[in-house]
Amino acid sequence: xxxxxxxxxxxxxxxxxxxxxxxxxxxxxxxxxxxxxxxxxxxxxxxxxxxxxxxxxxxxxxxxxxxxxxxxxxxxxxxxxxxxxxxxxxxxxxxxxxxxxxxxxxxxxxxxxxxxxxxxxxxxxxxxxxxxxxxxxxxxxxxxxxxxxxxxxxxxxxxxxxxxxxxxxxxxxxxxxxxxxxxxxxxxxxxxxxxxxxxxxxxxxxxxxxxxxxxxxxxxxxxxxxxxxxxxxxxxxxxxxxxxxxxxxxxxxxxxxxxxxxxxxxxxxxxxxxxxxxxxxxxxxxxxxxxxxxxxxxxxxxxxxxxxxxxxxxxxxxxxxxxxxxxxxxxxxxxxxxxxxxxxxxxxxxxxxxxxxxxxxxxxxxxxxxxxxxxxxxxxxxxxxxxxxxxxxxxxxxxxxxxxxxxxxxxxxxxxxxxxxxxxxxxxxxxxxxxxxxxxxxxx
Length: 444
Description:
Layout: H1 7-21, H2 23-35, H3 42-63, H4 66-79, H5 89-108, H6 112-117, H7 123-136, H8 140-155, H9 160-182, H10 192-218, H11 233-264, H12 266-302, H13 306-333, H14 335-342, H15 346-361, H16 363-379, H17 382-406, H18 411-443
Helix pairs in contact: 1-9, 1-12, 2-3, 2-9, 2-10, 2-12, 3-7, 3-11, 3-12, 4-8, 4-11, 4-12, 5-8, 7-10, 8-10, 9-10, 11-12, 11-17, 11-18, 12-13, 12-15, 12-16, 13-16, 13-18, 14-15, 15-18, 16-18, 17-18
Organism: Flagellimonas aquimarina
Protein name: Multidrug-efflux transporter
Membrane topology: Multi-pass membrane protein
């Protein structure tokens, strides 16, 4: 059956994917906004939430790559009309992924202080990092499981169920944040930063349970582990390993940025926490069209519909750029109020406002990278994605950051480096796509 590439079919995938995609950054943003306004040690709590959030995001992104690999393989087999051949693959992939996540959880829980000392966290901030992480880390396997099942649904061209789960999780997290952080007189004591951690953990558990039930009830995909291993397990492992290395490079940039901001002082890590959460929120917002490219791109490739694939690439980048322009306008119009959502510390807000315009102006470049990144994952081009991220990080982001630091640009150097990073990523993906698929379109 031919896949129609039009506004309706793309947005049927992109809109729900956008909503489900922003669930994780909404959890972090909610924590940031509420924690930043804690009446006792608000600045230290905000800094700790930012440092721990960055580290957890690294772990999730590094080990959550099975999601994209599963989605790519399922969508390609769906397009080729051979879905039955990979029905036992998701259970095998998820089983090994969860085992790995539990191993890493148990490995890090005993060296928490050493981990966050590497982020330049000291004193009260370090103690808050330890207490916050010691609770939130138990949600790590739950999030990886949820992400993997989201990948299965995406491969089946269904982003609606992940959207429902993500909405439930986000709303629940916000409600629990207010209850646990600030407390309820006579019923629940204020737990401040630890309350935010418990709110996130409970929300992640609920999402994992709901997505498990939906997978069993709404699909024919079984999570029962059966042997022998599926013939595609080798390709899935190779794809995941390439994305694993890619995620390490990606998170190297994010962690170095956090470390440099922390080294500048509390006001800078507080401002960076706000800025990076907004950057990630916009990234996942734009990434909805990357998700549509992921789902539809894999299916079109499986069907060898190269003209449809070319048409898809043009449409999703157009829609993504429109979204980025709307976000830019929103950011400039509400420039000051946005900062006040996250903190009442004037020194943090002053620092944040000094670089927020860079975050906003970088959105179109981010769109190129995020949209084509999703498309390339659907096409199974994981090796190239790996090489692009390695190049962008080690020949773009890091040199730009330390050159700016050497020139005395301070906090600006971090966010100028992000601009360089995203520019390299976006342009490299556009060039590769045109070079590989334009001849196929002309010959089809």
